Amino acid sequence: MIKAKVAIFCGSMYGPNKSHTKLAQEVTSHLVKNNFGIVYGGGQNGIMGVVANTALELNGHVTGIIPTFLNKREKIHKKLNKIVITKTMEERKKKFLSISDIFIALPGGGGTIEEISLVISANQLNIIKNKKMIIYNYKNYWSPLIKQYLKLPLSNYAHKDIFDYLSVCEDIKGLKKIISKIKI
Length: 184
Hints:
Elements: E1 4-9, H1 18-33, E2 36-40, H2 46-57, E3 62-67, H3 71-74, E4 82-86, H4 89-99, E5 102-105, H5 110-124, E6 133-136, H6 143-154, H7 162-165, E7 166-169, H8 172-180
Parallel strand pairs: 1-2, 1-5, 2-3, 3-4, 5-6, 6-7
Helix pairs in contact: 1-2
């Protein structure tokens, strides 16, 4: 039985080296083995494909959310438990927010940055209610972005409660600790 659905935001490309692939496998394996369902971008390319394939190999439940137009670029994964095909990116974003209970950002590109910001903004605006956004700062990959988020309350551009729903970890041990404290 699935405890909760975890959205994993990550790259549709493989990134600079194999360590990002191994990270995606480790995080996904931990989640599936602990009865979390996986929600991700629906493609079969890059780190996203690694997340989906790892979960499927472990008999995890995988939901992909992808807009029709990305099929040419990212190839819709055909072996998922559930695929949600949207018309627009806006519909995709709304679906991620509505069906996911927890969000984790692994290394990725501009789309991943946008997804992190989406979850934080949706929490701030009460579009979603205190759903945790976990930034996995693998080898300091997200340090400049994290630094900017830390600066926001000090600059009076965010309330201090931003840290109620934004967490950072640097390794699997830290991720496990954050997830263990989340009430769903």
